[in-house]
Amino acid sequence: MLGLCSPAAAHPVPFSYLDLRIQGEALEGSLVVHIFDAAHDLNVEPPERLLDPAVALARSAELVALLSPRLSVSADGRPLTAQWLAPDVLRERQSLRFPVRFALAKRPGSIAVAAWLFPYDPVHQTFLNVYEGDALTQAILDAGRPRFEYFAGTRQGALAVIQRFLPAGIHHILIGPDHLLFLVGLLLLGGTIRQLAVIVTSFTVAHSITLSLAALNIVTPPARIIEPAIALSIVYVGADNLLIKDGRDVRAWIAFAFGFIHGFGFANVLREMDLPARALGWSLFAFNVGVEIGQLLVVVVVATVLTTLRARSEAAGRQLAFAGSIVVIAAGAFWFIQRVFFPGGIS
């Protein structure tokens, strides 16, 4: 058996290293790639040939041509053009280091880096270091997460965070049918502008608290509990509308109590957006403001329609509130069953 064995080759280190430093008018950096990866894509055998400075220089243009489309860097959404220099041979690391420079038109608020340098290797990773002054931000790019966005610790960076997360908050509330239906259910019985403002504010205050706690990883209940609980909150709102009769209006308290649960639901989405470590406060603030703007848009539209209908016919307004509450209960019950018994979705 030993006589039949053949030599085996293993990938020594499936890593690349990209360093970027934000200077006044440019991003200065370097890309370090292992000779095993470079030799594979250049069809060089054995890979150690690339440790010869003459061979490395002769094949550098070909390697740069391969790597350039696989590495993209943009500043404030504008693609940057890489200026590659001749490689250095790092014999002790069995690697090649390419100095690279990206010219900047102005000091950026955000830098986005996308890298999938050696697609032949499904486990290949690129370790990214972004330097700004004395601050260092690190990330790992791979097949599952090929893109990273860095927000500068400046006024431009804060503005870039707001521009990214405020629209995201508006978008999330407008495309989230469960959150929207919960809010609509609270509005079906109508009320004065003050009453509706108190209801929406109570919901906002509550979900802002739990959103922040979850986004900061202080309290992180699992989604398998939160998502069914959100569905039950919708059922409760619809049932309360039918049972309240002429009793005391407790919708503000309902909005406040269940707002804590909905905040955890918002956080599940926000965590997937890669919160910038250096701008957590601004990102949470911008996302919350976006959610609030989206809520106000819904409130204005729904409240205007309901008020107009009641002004024409009080009976029609009551019928709409009754029918709407039934729909709210049915939808909440459907989502609860789906999320508890069919978490993968009902086909």
Keywords:
347 residues, alpha+beta, Growth Hormone, Chain: A, 4-stranded antiparallel sheet
Explain what you see.
With 347 residues, this protein is α+β, with helices and mostly antiparallel strands. The chain folds into two domains: 15-152, no CATH class; 157-341, Growth Hormone, Chain: A, CATH 1.20.1250. It has nine helices and eleven strands. The protein has helices at 35-42, 53-67, 155-175, 177-187, 193-215, 223-243, 251-271, 280-312, 314-341; strands at residues 15-22, 26-34, 71-75, 78-79, 82-84, 88-90, 95-103, 110-115, 125-132, 135-141, 147-151. Strands 1, 2, 5, 6, 7, 9 and 10 form a seven-stranded mixed β-sheet that branches. A four-stranded antiparallel β-sheet has the order 4-3-8-11. Strand 3 (71-75) and strand 4 (78-79) form a beta hairpin. Helix 8 crosses helix 9. The longest helix is centred in the C-terminal third of the chain and has 33 residues, at 280-312. It is elongated. The protein starts with 14 loop residues before the first strand and ends in a 6-residue tail after the last helix. 34% of the residues are buried.
List the helices and strands and how they pair.
Blueprint: E1 15-22, E2 26-34, H1 35-42, H2 53-67, E3 71-75, E4 78-79, E5 82-84, E6 88-90, E7 95-103, E8 110-115, E9 125-132, E10 135-141, E11 147-151, H3 155-175, H4 177-187, H5 193-215, H6 223-243, H7 251-271, H8 280-312, H9 314-341
Parallel strand pairs: 1-9
Antiparallel strand pairs: 1-2, 2-7, 3-4, 3-8, 5-7, 6-7, 8-11, 9-10
Helix pairs in contact: 3-8, 4-6, 4-8, 4-9, 5-7, 5-8, 6-7, 6-9, 8-9
